[in-house]
From TrEMBL:
InterPro entries: NDUFAF7, NDUFAF7_sf, SAM-dependent_MTases_sf. Gene3D superfamilies: 3.40.50.12710. It comes from Igneacidithiobacillus copahuensis. One of its GO terms (molecular function) is protein-arginine omega-N symmetric methyltransferase activity. The keyword Transferase applies. Keywords: Methyltransferase, Transferase. The lineage of its organism: Bacteria, Pseudomonadati, Pseudomonadota, Acidithiobacillia, Acidithiobacillales. GO terms for biological process: methylation. This is SAM-dependent methyltransferase. Residues 1-29 are annotated as: Disordered.
Amino acid sequence: MQPKRNGVVTQSPAGRKASTLPAPDPAAQAHSLTLQAEIRARIAAAGGWISFAEYMEMALYAPGKGYYMAGQRRFGPAGDFVTAPELGAVLGRVLARTLAPHAGRDGILELGGGSGALAAQIHEVLPQVPYHILEPSPDLQAQQRARCPAVQHLQRLPAEWHGVFLANEVLDAMPVAVVEKMADGTLREMGVVTDANDFAWAPASQPLPRPLLEPLQPYGAKWPVGYRSEVCPAATAWMHSLAARLQQGRILLIDYGQEAAAYYQPQRYLGSLRAYHRHHLLEDPFYWPGLCDLTADVNFSAIMAAAVAAGLQIAWYGPLARFLVTHGLPEVYAGLEAQASPEQRLALNNEVKILTLPQEMGERFQVLILEKGAPA
């Protein structure tokens, strides 16, 4: 996910709707207000407090109203952010070279296919390999079919899979639990309550449950009071689910994140939770629910630990730039450059810079390849 530019950081809670960001149009505001009413009802039914993970689940995935489940434009320059496949064909072609030997009898299953750009790029290189997408959003399914008519949509994970699971920027959109260190030194889960005009943060009344506490125990003692970060049990559960279904083949994950020691270092006292709206990066996760993407960095240590515990082997892990260079970028670049016009060559060079430079996506994004049942 690459914001086109940084914009105004909205403030929470007072004055959020009056920030210097361009106001959403009346139809978009009405859409958000409808979702807000549903969230308020959920909070009231739960006794006045829900976890942030539950809020994030509704804001992103409420049927017909959540950010990914409604019809607004999300990807590309006209949307809220740009992902690597929207930059050009480089990532897709490198992935096609990487995945082809492991496609097996079932082919490739992309989990959350975005705009369909990645599917189209890989299918162009590997037209003989079956390409499937598991996508909960009807609107995105339509975009994916328009972009790649050969794609086959699945409604749920298959019971067994011989081939490849592919997920580009999926983990960062999974609902996270937010944890904060209190003045008494304890860790509490931060949830969402309502006030007169908006949503607000509030700590849970009970101590942090063990599934959230255990991943933080090696790090929490060094945190200052007020330190806030995230835990994502949904991601580890998802990894176990994929591992149970993969009989032979690979899982390839691409996302922005770090290993646990960097993820939970004391200097990152604000955590990584953020929102995107029209290429503006926002700190306020309650800004117009349903109109903004919510995202957090991925703790790759937790993902790798869950993968190994579920019976997978780590075949490769490292930053995106190194993955591209060691998996065929020079050959892919030469092939694209030979057919490019001067304008296309300029765009190609810019794409490679964004994908590989440390200050762009090259170091911020990680690639993790997991394997199961590899031939001897």
